[in-house]
Design a protein that fits this description.
Helix content: 40-55%
Number of helices: 3
Strand content: 5-15%
Radius of gyration: 13 Å
Structural class: mainly alpha
Strand order of the largest sheet: 1-2
C-alpha cells in the first residue's frame, strides 16, 4: 500500500542524499530545542555538521 503523496517525499526521487537528510534532521532538532531559524547561520554546527551553511545553500536554491 502506498500513502498518498508518498512519492513526493521519496528521498531517491527527490535526490536527497544521506548528507542532506542528516543536516535536515540536525536542523529540526535545533529548532525543536528552541533555536530560532534566523539564528541558524553559517558556522552553527550540530554533531560536526555545519547546519547554518547547509541551510544557506537550501535557501539559495528554493523557489518558494
Amino acid at each position: 500500500m502506498t500513502l498518498p503523496g508518498a512519492c513526493v517525499w521519496n528521498p531517491r526521487i527527490r535526490g536527497w542524499t544521506v548528507d542532506w537528510r542528516r543536516h535536515y534532521a540536525y536542523l529540526t532538532r535545533l529548532l525543536a530545542s528552541g533555536a530560532r531559524l534566523t539564528a541558524v547561520v553559517p558556522d552553527v554546527t550540530r554533531h560536526g555538521g555545519d547546519v547554518g551553511r547547509w541551510l544557506t545553500t537550501q535557501r539559495r536554491h528554493w523557489n518558494g
